[in-house]
Amino acid sequence: MAPSSPFDRPRDSVLPLELCRQRIARAARAADRDPAEIVLTAVSKQQPWDAIEPILAAGQTVFGENRVQEALSRWTARRCGLELRLIGPLQTNKARAAVALFDVIETLDRPQLALELARAADKEGRLPRLFVQVNTGEEVQKSGVAPQALPTFLDLVRETYGFEPEGLMCIPPAGEAPAPHFALLARLARRHGLSRLSMGMSGDYEAAIRHGATDVRIGTALFGARAQSAPAQTP
Ligand SMILES: *Cc1c(COP(=O)(O)O)cnc(C)c1O
User: What separation in Å is there between the alpha carbon of 197 and the centre of ligand 1?
Assistant: First the structure.
C-alpha cells in the first residue's frame, strides 16, 4: 500500500493510526523483533485539536510535544491517562514546568540543563524519564550532545545527578540518508548500556525500526501537515 494513502482519508478516520501500527508491526517482525516493544509517540505539536481528537479516541496514549508552553495549554486539562513526552529543545528557564508536566524528556543535551532538571526534580518531587539527545550529524544549528562528548556527558549525569537515562534520541540531518545516523545511535546506546532508542519519524520510521528503534515519533503521517513548520532547533 502506498504510504501516502492515509492522507486520502478524512481527518476523522482512525485509519492513519491503524496503518502506522501495522507498518510498525511489519517492520518489527521483518527485523525479528517483537512489535510490542516499540512505543509510538504521536507528535501533536502544532496540530489543531480536531486532528488530535480522533487519534486520542482511537486509543493512542503517548503524545509528543516540542514546546512546553504549547503542551501546557493543550494537555493540562486532559492529562489523565496519557503519557506526555517532550521531544523539542528545553530552555533551562522552563525546566521546572517541563519536570512538572512531562513523563519523559527526550532532549537532555547539556550540563546546564542536567543541573536545572535536578533542581526542578527536587522542588517538584518527581523526575521524568530521560533520553539523551545526540547530534549525530554534528549540525551547528541542532541541539544534542556531540557523539564524541557522549561518554563524558553520561558520566556527568549519572555520577553528579544520579540520573539513569533510558536511552538516546536523534534527529538525522534533513536531506541525508538517515540509516547511518540510526546505526550510529544504536552503536552508542549499546556501548553505554542504554536500552532504548528514540529515532524514526513519519518518513523513516520503518528504517529506524530495522536499526533497533524502540521509540518512534510520528507526526504528519498521523495528523496530516502541521499548521506552521517546526521551529528552529535552538536550545
Ligand atoms: C516534529 C518532530 C517529529 C515528527 O515529525 P514528522 O515528520 O511530522 O513525523 C519527530 N521528532 C521530533 C524531534 C520532531 O520535532
Answer: 15
